[in-house]
Every structure is written in C-alpha cells, then in structure tokens.
C-alpha cells in the first residue's frame, strides 16, 4: 500500500522565499507532501494555533535558518523558534539547515537590531546542540541537501505517513477489481497494439544511438550532492529500466534504478552513492524517447507518473535480457 509522508518546512518567510520554493519542489519530487506557513506569511498568535495543528499532522520537520530571526511573539520569541520548540516537544524528527555565514548575506536578509542578532545566535546554537545539522550557502544547494537528509531520515525513522482513503478498501472490492481487470485484459492489449507506434517522428534516434544523461549522487554524511554524466545507448538505458517497469514503480523510483545502472554501464561504478537519481531533464528525455519509440505507456496514479510496458516494450526487454546459447558458457 503506497504511503506518503508530510514534511513541515519552517523558516522566516520574506527573506527565504526562493529557498522555501526549492525545498518544496525537492520534497514533492520525493513523493512527499510539503507543508508550511505560506498561507500565513504574516503570522500572529491566533494563526500560530493553526500552524500547530498543521505540525501535528506532519511526519517530519525541516528547519531552514538564514540571517533573520523573524517576527516576535508577545513573549519576545520568534514564531520560527516557537514552531521548532513545538515540533521537538511533539517528538518529530528534525532536519536543520543553517546558513554557514549569515554575515555575508545582503543587508535586507540579515538582522540589524542587536537584540535580534543575539537571539538568532542563541537559536542557532540551540538547534545545533545534540543533533547533526547541514550548512548551506546558496539556495541551489538546499534541494540536494534536503533530499539526502530526508531520504536517510525516512529510512532510519519511518513514521505512520498518509495513504489515500480508497487505498484501504474492503478485500472483496480488490477481488472484484481483479476479476474486471482479467476480463478487460484482451481489450487493453489490443488497444496497446494499436497505440504502440502512433508516434511517426522523422529521424527519431534508434536504440543503438548514444545519449548523454545527467544525474546526482551523494552520501548521507555529505553536505552536498555530486553531479555526474554518463553516455549510453538508448538500448542500454532501456535494458536497465525495463525489468523494473512491470513492478509499477513511480517514475521517481525508476530514476534511482536507472541512475545506478547507468553508472555501472559507463564504468563509473567505483563511486557508490547512498542516494542516486537522474536530473529532471534527463528523466523527462527518457520518458519522451521511450514513449516515442512505442516501448512504454504513461499513466497517473496518486499524482505520480507511472510507466508500463507496451507489447513492443515487452518484446524489446526480452530481446535485450534473454540469455542466448552463445552466452550460456558464461552463466554461473
């Protein structure tokens, strides 16, 4: 049963809007649900009560600290620090990302009042005590840092998460659906045959032609993701991806399998990353090319893109992966 995790993003707002947007995108690409105070950029005591209810519904908590301490409550504590304290008291796993040199930020993104500067320094020290934090310098570093930290935290500290209400249906309904699928299978296969070669594109690259793809990898203890490139034929890429497609994996999950396999095929497997994924442009390129070649069909499930093999794709997968007589002597 597919599960998603909700992640609260906490930070000051006006000075970190670009950073928040990039972190939200990274969280969504990991099939998680971002939550935060975008609906209340100017927060007060009453709205903070609502924010606490949002935090109650979250599985993990991300804190981004730049050069501002933030708006103060009546108690003289910033709402960002209040959110942090509330999340810690609730027992949420906290991932903190602190700017490594707040003094280098533009004036409009830093505190100018001595009292707020001291409170920011104290808050940073509190957050860094007793937990590992990641340092960042520019907004573009945050997506990779967040993806690595969140992936490790989910794996190490899995929580309840969220599932769609209709995913927990009565088993009898599943049985009925299975029967309907079986009855409709022949119609689906016939439709797939008719649609497999509908893309009559001039001069389309064949499976033997080579393409260069880009990806990112990193280690859990590292503070940044490392970009890499690999040049493979379309056939090699389809050989890597096709065995995983029948498992109904999401495109984001397939991205990790393809990234790992691409490094092996391109003799770059000596570098083994804890987290590995394709760049968005490469992921989209593979999706479009394989579809244009009539090898895959696309569908949407819970807002995720899923691939499935066409009859042509199944035949090509078999052709690429089957063991032939000449290869039997090498099979152990």
Question: In words, what does this structure look like?
Answer:
- With 332 residues, this protein is an alpha/beta fold.
- The chain folds into two domains: 6-156, Rossmann fold (3-Layer(aba) Sandwich); 199-330, Winged helix-like DNA-binding domain superfamily/Winged helix DNA-binding domain (Arc Repressor Mutant, subunit A).
- The chain has helices at 17-29, 45-56, 79-90, 114-128, 142-156, 171-195, 234-241, 251-265, 280-292, 311-321, and strands at residues 6-10, 33-35, 60-65, 93-99, 133-136, 210-218, 226-233, 275-278, 296-301, 304-309.
- The strands form three sheets. Strands 2-1-3-4-5 form a five-stranded parallel beta sheet, with helices on both faces.
- α1 (17-29) crosses α5 (142-156).
- The longest helix is centred in the middle third of the chain and has 25 residues, at 171-195.
Describe the secondary structure blueprint for this structure:
Blueprint: E1 6-10, H1 17-29, E2 33-35, H2 45-56, E3 60-65, H3 79-90, E4 93-99, H4 114-128, E5 133-136, H5 142-156, H6 171-195, E6 210-218, E7 226-233, H7 234-241, H8 251-265, E8 275-278, H9 280-292, E9 296-301, E10 304-309, H10 311-321
Parallel strand pairs: 1-2, 1-3, 3-4, 4-5
Antiparallel strand pairs: 6-7, 6-8, 9-10
Helix pairs in contact: 1-5, 2-3, 7-8
Key attributes of the depicted protein:
alpha/beta; Arc Repressor Mutant, subunit A; 2 domains; 10 strands; 17% strand
């Amino acid at each position: 049963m597919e599960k998603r995790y909700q992640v609260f993003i906490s930070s000051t707002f006006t000075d970190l809007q670009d950073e928040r947007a990039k972190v939200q995108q990274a969280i969504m690409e990991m099939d998680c649900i971002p939550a935060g105070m975008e609906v209340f950029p100017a927060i007060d005591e009453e709205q903070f009560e609502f924010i606490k209810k949002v935090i109650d519904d979250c599985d993990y908590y991300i804190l981004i600290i730049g050069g501002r301490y933030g708006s103060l409550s009546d108690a003289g504590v910033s709402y960002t620090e209040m959110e942090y304290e509330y999340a810690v008291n609730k027992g949420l796993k906290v991932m903190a990302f602190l700017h490594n040199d707040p003094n280098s930020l533009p004036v409009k993104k830093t505190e100018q009042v001595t009292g707020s500067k001291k409170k920011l320094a104290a808050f940073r020290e509190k957050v860094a005590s007793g937990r590992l934090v990641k340092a960042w310098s520019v907004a573009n570093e945050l997506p990779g840092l967040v993806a690595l930290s969140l992936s490790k935290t989910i794996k190490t500290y899995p929580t309840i998460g969220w599932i769609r209400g209709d995913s927990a249906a009565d088993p009898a309904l599943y049985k009925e659906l299975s029967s309907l699928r079986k009855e409709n299978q022949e119609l689906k296969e016939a439709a797939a045959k008719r649609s497999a070669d509908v893309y009559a594109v001039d001069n389309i690259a064949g499976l033997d032609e080579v393409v260069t793809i880009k990806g990112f990898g990193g280690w859990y203890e590292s503070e940044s993701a490392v970009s890499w490139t690999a040049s493979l034929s379309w056939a090699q890429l389809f050989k890597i991806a096709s065995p995983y497609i029948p498992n109904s994996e999401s495109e984001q999950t397939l991205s990790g399998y393809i990234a790992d396999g691409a490094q092996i095929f391109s003799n770059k497997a000596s570098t083994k990353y804890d987290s590995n994924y394709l760049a968005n442009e490469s992921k989209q390129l593979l999706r479009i090319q394989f579809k244009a070649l009539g090898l895959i069909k696309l569908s949407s499930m819970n807002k995720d893109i899923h691939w499935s093999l066409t009859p042509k794709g199944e035949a090509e997968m078999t052709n690429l992966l089957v063991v032939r007589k000449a290869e039997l002597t090498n099979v152990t």
